[in-house]
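Title: Comparing notes on inverse folding

I've been comparing how different people in this forum approach sequence design from structure. To keep things fair, I'm posting one structure and asking everyone to reply with a full sequence. Here's the target:
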């Protein structure tokens, strides 16, 4: 079972959407504080209605893997950021780029439960994260 399928299965066990929203909010609350130095335009997800920042760097423990940090000013979207960061753990930048995020969002049924603007915003977050992963590859920042 893939990491995405595991996340979908875990999400399905939560039952109704009230519990799922609560879970997303709790995930977001567990994100480490994003340093102010990383809250810059280059890390901001501009198409998102919320204020969202994501930042990619080589994992300090395993430099060939990617490590994301992020934050958002709304709890549900912050939870989505946390979910994406969780999904990136233990992956190289290319493995993250290759993830089938459509499968994840379809399995979670996010489109059915988020406004169209929020839906566009979460895909914008994914686009920024994948772009940052590609930048790490292009600069050779992940080669150990």
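Reply #1:
Here's my take.
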């Amino acid at each position: 079972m893939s990491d995405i399928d595991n996340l979908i299965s875990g999400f399905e066990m939560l039952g109704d959407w009230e519990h799922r929203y609560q879970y997303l909010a709790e995930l977001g609350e567990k994100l480490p504080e994003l340093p102010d130095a990383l809250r810059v335009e280059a890390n901001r997800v501009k198409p998102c209605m919320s204020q969202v920042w994501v930042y990619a760097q080589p994992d300090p423990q395993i430099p060939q893997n990617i490590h994301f940090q992020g934050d958002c000013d709304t709890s549900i979207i912050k939870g989505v950021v946390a979910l994406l960061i969780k999904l990136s753990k233990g992956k190289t930048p290319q493995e993250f780029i290759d993830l089938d995020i459509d499968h994840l969002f379809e399995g979670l049924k996010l489109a059915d439960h988020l406004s169209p603007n929020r839906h566009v915003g979460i895909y914008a977050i994914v686009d920024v994260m994948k772009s940052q992963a590609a930048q790490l590859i292009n600069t050779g920042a992940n080669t150990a």
